[in-house]
Amino acid sequence: MSTLQVSIYRYNPETDSAPYMQEFQVDTHGRDLMVLDVLHLMKEQDSGLAFRRSCREGVCGSDGMNMNGKNGLGCITPLSEVVKGNKLVLRPLPGLPVIRDLVVDMGLFYKQYERIQPYLLNSDPEPAIERLQSPEDRDKLDGLYECILCACCSTACPSFWWNPEKFVGPAGLLQSYRFLADSRDTATAERLAALEDPFSVFRCRGIMNCVAVCPKGLNPTRAIGKIREMLLADAT
Amino acid sequence: MSNLRSLSFDAIIIGGGGAGMRAALELAKSGKKTAVLSKVFPTRSHTVSAQGGITCAIASSDPDDDWRWHMYDTVKGGDYIADQDAAEYMCSEGPKAVFELEHMGLPFSRFDNGRIYQRPFGGQSKNFGEGGQAARTCAAADRTGHALLHTLYQNNLKNNTTFLNEWYAVDLVKNANGDVVGCIAMDIETGEVVHVKSKATVLATGGAGRIYASTTNALINTGDGIGMALRAGFPMQDMEMWQFHPTGIYGAGTLVTEGCRGEGGYLINKDGERFMERYAPNAKDLAGRDVVARSMVMEILEGRGCGEHGDHVFLKLDHLGDDVLGKRLPGIVELSKTFAHVDPASEPIPVVPTCHYMMGGIPTNVHGQAIMQDGDGKDRIVNGLFACGEAACVSVHGANRLGGNSLLDLVVFGRAAGMFIEGALNEGVDYLDASESDIATAMKRMSRWNESGDGESVPALKRELQAIMQNSFGVFREEENMQKGVRQLEELRARIGNAYLPDKSNAFNTARVEALELDNLMEVAEATAIAALDRKESRGAHSRYDYPDRDDVNWLKHSLYFPLEKRVGKRDVNFAPKTVDTFEPKIRTY
To answer: In A, which residues are within 8 Å of B331 by CB distance?
Structure first.
């Protein structure tokens, strides 16, 4: 079948009193397009349709969205992976305020990222060349530094839905551990002290939605487990 | 007074990619009132897509490496129209800029001794081309751009840089003296249009690969800074020079890093032949990108292309082994599976030369100051206007950029622009305020779209523009076809001037942004086309069937495109580096 049924969340604050779902018929010519390609075809039917996109290859993190119930990136999700019964339902990432259509206000998500001091802290004087790091120590950053801040994980996390102001969320904690795990960072104690309250880390209930949706195949739950271990070791 | 709200800064940096954020970092540390204005959240900028690395003589893989060898490679790679004072500055300052990135936390891959990992890339040599292949490209696996961009964003957070994220710069504001004193910008979320006043305006808006139908570039690469500068009447340099990357994934256009060939991968034709051995017997698959791209097209044109239509070739990686693929090229494995439906561990990747990089741009000196020409053809600084990164043409890339030099360019010259602006602000630079009519001039284009009643649609016109550029200004060029392209663009410009924006709403109106971007694509395409038609020789990426040879007598020059007269002039190339002897033009072979 070459005509795809798309149901998409629409909301324009200037003209709509409430959000609604709009139906589109999209002619795919039988091709296994990416969801982002389908959105572009829909935008040709209605130029007012709003969504974010940039790299279209899964590295910039602009087009996180909810596709048939699951968060992911539109640009690297082929229809064959998500479409069921020729039907595609597209919604904005859940849990964040909607600005327009698929565009959400990422402010809370970024605030939690900024809170964990997402930069290297090293109080030693800088050497004339690079700081040395063994390949084994560098390996510890794999699976952490690749985060693209798309917010698929945090907006799939019930703990983040409940406490977006207090629980850092999986994306922020993954980055927190990226710096805790870096042999070049000297602020471990300070970083842990900022996380030891009951909410920042400990609101993670191990639901693992974050792992299930991460488009880069990263594992925030494991990183959160490592932070917990460090916090508990610190406390004894 | 104007009814626009105005914001005031010491320096406004337009563009939140690597160049813009490196400049911003310098200024934020200095305490100047600085803002980065970016149409996307900064980590969505196209720098994020850079894969293979940042080329720099940090003497890690080879303790005897020398920045002068890197400079030689850069000048030769650029087919001798790179400015040698600029290449000297970039290659000699480079190590400082790379070590700074490492100190900021960039997670470079490492050698066993703990130093930064470096891999071989195209066009690299030791000892001025005499010592064989060098390995000079510093890498964070094959995600170096991502690692670099995030590191710069993080350090800007650390230094409390002000960000105007998801703001779109519409046009430059010039005062009565022709100085640039800020810009008109729109907050995309609310649609509010604001007059941004600034003593220094930095265009760090990146490239414009979206003028072509097939490109490795992000959808946002629409040449906004180039469009703004051209509409303000400023000249563009070497706009005919566009790099076609040898390995874009066939069909999708997504980039496959040159690092694949650096790690030992190679190209094959339909007979399974490693054809680069014929075209570049020494460097083979690691010849300059222009050389490799042309060789691929020759193979395809001569009937040795792969696939049902014989219109691409294969990149073979399956002999590299899981360790190299997993450790050094994990992102490529991912992209190949997603966009080519092949696992490079067992099958070759279908690839084709794809528009990748704009060597030309806003002419600047090494401090990022924009340059124009006075009536006598002499260089003159444009007060208040700066450019760095891909939007600028310093020129370090000449007629063909070497792999890994773009990331170095953007950190070295982003940093240099930041330092220079700090100095200028300390000296108390100040220009005449813009008048009401100066602001109205900068608002004209925005108003035109907002008042459009009916007309053709933006996406359809954009597709036409991309097809013209693809058909007439691709890897190989020729007079008649280019003339046809120029005529088609002329006609298209008139139609774009009457195009229609149906959605006039304010909140996050991406249709308005795309309409404004189309104007910029048009400016870039026309500058490219007219400059390409004018250069009657083949040099670097500019390759003509009708003028197949390099002509150093007439064309060892920069081209300079003047938008008001749509005229192309020439500008001298710098052959006077300060600390090394000039590299005299030689026949360029690999």
So the answer is: 59
Average pLDDT over residues B507-517: 98
Spell out which residues of chain B touch residue A55, defining contact as CB-CB under 8 Å: 44, 46, 48-49, 218-219
Give start-end residues of each CATH 1.10.1060.10 domain in chain A: 107-235
Rounded to two decimals, the pTM is 0.97
B338 DSSP 8-state letter: I
Q: How far is CA A169 from the centre of its chain?
A: 10
Q: What is the reported pLDDT for B3?
A: 80
C-alpha to C-alpha distance for B228 and B222, rounded to whole angstroms: 11
CA distances from B75 to A86, B170, B219, B288, B531 (A): 55, 35, 31, 12, 21
CB nearest to B103's CB, from A51, A118, A131: A131
Q: How far is A199 from chain B (nearest CA, A)?
A: 24
Residue A57, helix vs strand vs coil: coil
Write down the catalytic residue from B136, B210, B261, B289: B289
Asked if B240 contacts B531 with a C-beta cutoff of 8 angstroms, the reply is: yes
Q: For residue B187, which amino acid is it?
A: D
Secondary-structure class of domain A3-104 per CATH: alpha beta
| Residue pair A104/A154 in contact by the 8 Å Cβ criterion | no
Q: Are B305 and B299 in contact (CB under 8 A)?
A: yes
The most distant pair of C-alpha atoms in chain B lies apart, rounded to whole Å, by 71
Is B409 in contact with B357 (CB distance < 8 Å)?
Answer: no
Q: Is the Cβ pair B338, A76 closer than 8 Å?
A: yes
Query: Any idea what DSSP says for residue B144?
Result: H
ipTM of the complex: 0.98
**C-alpha to C-alpha distance for B150 and B142, rounded to whole angstroms:** 15
Angle at A93 between CA A92 and CA A95, to 5 degrees: 115
Q: Contact, B256 vs B336, CB < 8 A?
A: yes
Element (H, E) at B543: strand B543-544
DSSP state of B545: S
| Per-residue pLDDT reduced to its tens digit, A56-115 | 999 999 999 999 999 999 999 999 999 999 999 999 999 999 999 999 999 999 999 999
CA–CA gap between residue B130 and residue B307 (Å, rounded):
39
Amino acid sitting at position B362: I
* Spatial CA neighbour of B405 closest among B462, B356, B452, B332: B356
Sign of CA dihedral A121, A127, A128, A134: negative
Q: In what order do the strands lie in the sheet with A70-73?
A: A20-27, A3-10, A87-91, A64-67, A70-73
| Interface contact B103-A132, CB threshold 8 A | no
Predicted confidence (pLDDT) per residue in B231-247, tens digit: 999 999 999 999 999 99
pLDDT for A2 equals: 81
Q: How far apart (Å, rounded) are the C-alpha atoms in residues B422 and B26?
A: 8
Q: Using CA atoms, how far apart are residues B204 and B226, in angstroms rounded to an integer?
A: 10
Q: What is the CATH code for A107-235?
A: 1.10.1060.10
Is B289 catalytic? The answer is yes
CB distance A33 to A112 below 8 Å: no
CATH 3.10.20.30 residue window(s) in chain A = 3-104
Nearest residue of B to residue A12, measured between CA atoms: B507
Q: How many CB pairs under 8 A join A and B?
A: 153
Q: What's the sign of the alpha-carbon dihedral A71, A76, A80, A85?
A: positive
Residues of chain B in contact with residue A51, where contact means CB-CB under 8 angstroms, are 510
User: Hey, what are B505's tokens?
Assistant: 């709403």
